[in-house]
What does this fold into?
Amino acid sequence: MKHFVKLTVVGGAIGMSEISNKTKKYSVLPFGPQHPVLPEPVHLKFLVDEEKIVDVLPNLGYVHRGIERGCELNDYKRNIYLTERVCGICNFIHGATYSAGIEKITDTEVPIRAKYLRSIWSELQRLQSHLLWLGLFADAIGFESLFMQIWRDREMVLSLNEKTNGHRIHLETNLIGGARKDIDESLAKVYKEDLSVLRKKVEALTPVFHKDPGIKQKCEGKGILPKSKARFLGAVGPVIRGSGLKEDIRMTGYEAYGQLDFEPIVYNGEDAYSRMLVRFDETLQAFDLIDKALKQMPEGPILNKNTKFPEGSTVVRSEQPRGELFYYLEGNGTNKLDRCKIRTPTAANIPPLVNMLIGYEVPDIPTIVHSIDPCISCTERIVYLKEK
Amino acid sequence: MIFLAIQHYEIKSKLDDLKTTPSEISLVINELKSQNVRFLTITALDQDESIELVYHFEKGIDVINLHLKSLKKDVIPSITSVFPAAFIAENELQDLFKLKISGINVDLGGKSIKVEDSPTTLLKPAVGPEPPILRFYGRCREECPSMVNAPKYIRQIAQGDPIAAYNTVLENAALPACLGRVCFAPCQEGCRQEKNDEPIQIRLLKRYAADNTPALKSKFKRSKSSGKKIAIVGGGPSGVACAFYLGLMGHNVTLYEKTSKCGGAMLWGIPKYRLPKDILELEVQARFKDAGVTFKPNSDITDLKPLQKEYDAIYLALGASGSSKLMIEGENSEGVYDFRDVLRMVNVEDKTPNLGKSVAVIGGGNSSIDAARVARRLGADKVTMYYRRTEKEMPASPLEIHGAIAEGVNFEYLVGPLKINSGKPLKLMLQDMKLGEPDASGRRRPEPIPGSEFTVEVDSIITAIGQTVGIPSDFGVQVTRYGTIVVNDNYETSIKGVYAGGDVVFGPKSVIEALRDGKKVASVIDKSFNGKGWPEPSIDMTEFVARPSNLDEIKTQEKVECRELSLEARILSFDEVELGFNVDEALREANRCWRCDWNE
It folds into this structure.
């Protein structure tokens, strides 16, 4: 009982392993950085006992792009477009959160209509992000026809983006102090019509996600993240809501969310299946929120130009499709920022991921890794400081 | 939920700014942890020579910022032992800002983001760093006969969750509240703090966990009924433990006890000032309720045949029910008591026998000391213990000896009894001894010194030189020449389907060993019905463990003294002597743990 062997691989931060039998041999299974089920490069090193995962070591750092450093070199107004490049999928939310931070430092009042516009576009991004993920997830668990169907339907959101500001992916409708574009009556009509068509298509998938025995078999009970540990390990977004905790930054009522009166979607299963259902139900909820916002949106100006340079520091948070997005901004009274720190939700979800993987089998890896909706490129926009 | 009117982005992000220094950070972080904050991230603000770190935490909907200013060359303690989620952020700091951070769990060794030998990310090797990681049972756990997961429940207490700690103990030992009072705590002897003579007081922490568990209820549920019927003979700790685990595994258990209450030697043998009998009763009944055990008191089993017909398996946990005799002249005189009778009168029958003013106790075990301390409470002014070897060879635990000395019990070593002359007062003739060659037990054999006889006059004598095992001859199981039952490796006796464990097999032992036997037999019986058995003690791999980063501070902390009843109050009553820890004391004591089950 007292014999232990030095492990060759570190256990993840969060669950460590023990070897009680001296003769037992463990294998090391490298996973990534390039792997068919990984859309983006991350390296996970698995210590496996035959098929069972004993230990995981996450290793990041394959795609970092120096965006934080870039934010210090750019004019603070142009940073909106740089921060929108942090993530392609939820680009608008990055820009809006950054603007919100600058508005907070410079005491710029944002017109109410602009706040509604930001909420509408944020939900539109959530819609397309979740549809993208549902498709990828279907692919990861081997349900290819579902993947193709969802991605075909998702094209409607992309064409809405295009009708708004000319780009299929990047919206770029954001400015410090408000919005660059308005949704006029004709565009609002297009929004309503297109989204009602899309809604029917998504609703038709409800029985697939909620009842299909194949999906259930692949995800139910996989990658358990206990409710008691979720907060301790810093899980955010659908991951923590799939573990039964009602945590959603939108509940703080930023942008127009305070007046849209919604309840965050929470499932208690603690497994990959619950996290998937949270995302699916949030997709349907996004339709409601957009409808409600379009209906409630008051007339008025959409931009209140700010004239001050940012001076002071602030923290600003918002709810991305993947969870809580965090910005720390510090200005010095010039047109360049001193510091712009970004913490994306995937960075927060990696410690829980390590915890989820231990104890499951190698074939479960794609399901569990996908269940946190990893967006590695967003995570690794780390600053690289020049050596002096 | 909070829905405020639209006024501004992020309603109340008014920053609560705190300041700290590298030497104080672990204190502040622990304080924040107790406020149930969530770790967000760490921002580094580069200021040429120095660096400012801003730790961001979420409390409710507010963000708390903790500013730490330090020189770049200084070492900053890691916070991953408290907030494990910080390991990604801290590895980033280490790699990008060239900071020295001590004790990161897991330290990626400067290879997480960018390394010198990989000028571009494309060349970054696809292998990670390989620091050696070891995980142990922990010395305290290895010392425990029942392998109770001490490191884990100490941590749970440190995290403010005594109920979880109670359930952790229950996984391997069925009566935590009793153990917290009477266990001889081998774990504390294994504790690494023992080197400083100040081990973590694990036994008292266990008691704290039990005291803070309402009605001693466990989280364990009885699993689906298996339809198997099992009889357990004897309601001591071993029998109760076996009944509890078998019941949880879904078997229908009936427990036969000779007397009216369960507890066995714990009931009659352990004085009330150490183990209040209502707590014992409450805990035993709670276990029976958890496991759905049928309890049949006042049923003396003298023959196994009817039981064998009715039940699928039988567990004999009869305990050690006799006492060794002095084998000297005058042993049966009036005023000479067996320690068992004295303790039973006081503990079970609530009687106060009159022992007179001066009492002699013969023997050197824990029970002898119990008898001496009980005599002191019964009004004897002069209590003297006579033991034939020295204090070093005494089987009683040092803590007990010190407790007895504090209460005014005298100790006479290297004396053996020769003869008792009846009358009032009794005349006890004794003889000096010296130590000879070691015997089979490794202790040096006492040898009489001829011509050194002397006599003392006492009002009464309590003999406490040991317990013996005796079982009814009708049982038909094979016994050794000492009267104990012969069992194989699986605790099975010479009769198939009849198991035995505890004192009746191994002679008088401790409570924790009896509980271990009960648990093991439960496992064996379940396996004989093609069940999985109760899980073997193993390391909880899902539990987060990290060495605290402020180890140097922890090592110098002094142990928390347990509050005790004053000496005057002690000898007047049978109230509990130890008063246990309150919340503050328990947290302070639990936080002294080094967590040496992780990476020595």
